[in-house]
Amino acid sequence: MASQTLTRERALNPYDVSADALYTQNAWREPFAFLRKEMPVSWRADSPFGGYWSAVTHETIQQIELMPEVFSSSWKLGNITIAESINEAEFPNFIAQDPPIHTAQRKVIAPAFSPGQMIKLEAQVRERAKMLFDTLPLGETFDWVEQLAIPQTLGMLCSLFDMPFDEWRDLKRWSDYASGVSADNLNDEYRAEWQKQMGEMLVRFDRELEARRALPPSDDLLSRMVHSEAMGQLPPLERLANIALLIVAGNDTTRNSISGLVEAFHLYPEELETLRADPTLSANAAQEIIRWQSPVTHMRRTATRDVEVGGQQIRAGEKIVMWYISGNRDESVFPGAERFDVRRDNARRHIGFGHGIHRCVGARLAEVQIAAVIDELVARRLRPVPVGAPERLASPFLHGFSAMPVRLEQD
Predict the structure, then answer these.
(1) Which domain holds residue 320?
(2) Average pLDDT, stretch 177-194?
(3) What is the C-alpha to C-alpha distance for residues 157 and 199, in angstroms, rounded to an integer?
(4) What is the distance between the alpha carbons of residues 89 and 115, in angstroms, rounded to a whole number?
(5) What spatial distance separates the first Cα and last Cα of the chain, rounded to whole Å?
């Protein structure tokens, strides 16, 4: 009886915001606007991923992020997505860990994005952006995702790993499988292919890791891993999970923000004119597109004890999903939140890369890559014009595009 009473008292979410259709049909705004207004924290009992809580306001999401001892990221409790683990497999990467393991492993990765390293990386990013823009056709239809967003971000990833650029298609395929959270993927056929792809990825990266182990320590990420105490002797499953994380985090989120620029400039063409008038705004525009696009739709935590958030009683063991895509549209923090505004004075308050101890360690590199693309558009006086509708990702986890036909116009 107590259980039934508590269930009745819960704020019951009338929407399953984990449904792929909300994102493929670009229909997510209205449900989240309703939830932010009526129930900042709400319970959904049924979904392909089971019951889950939703936190949808900027405030409640930050509150949860700042309580890692109560809201666990651990793979042992379910991992970091609305799906249970990753395709029902254990996936112990470093952001799916709690302190002290998370703290120790993050310290291994973080120096790869230090200010000194960023100086070198930014030069590479800008050189690659110039090279890619030199190859883009004017006045002809091409796929912005395939010809710009993917090679820009995966080229940078190859540099971080010190791997040949011609392997970028393998990296993309492995990334897509590693991040493939979707109700459509909850079947044996997909799981079998997922295991096959992840196995191939581990074999390939194990060769790289062993090659680094035989050499003196260097700045690339793989060398940092094998020469560290915290990550140097990881078992196969942890090696796999951490490599997958670095690939997904290193390209998916950035490429989806770069692709989101096309929609943003199409809907708000005056913002590109503003950037042309003041190119120094490109860094702020990069922050704004991360907020506006929200390339990571959600992150999930699991309650380690009974706790109250947003006026709701969360029970130990229940999953709570932080919908970044909604928090970044919170009008109480971002007035006129639906508008893409390159002058927005608090764009950096976005939670597109998380908050607290799990904030994306490579956030600065993502911002630099996006700004480099904006700078090339501005300097070359180019405008990307959509040609038909884009193909949107069928996922409640990553918010982006599989294809985006565009035509570049110069004015």
Answers:
(1) 2-410
(2) 91
(3) 20
(4) 36
(5) 69
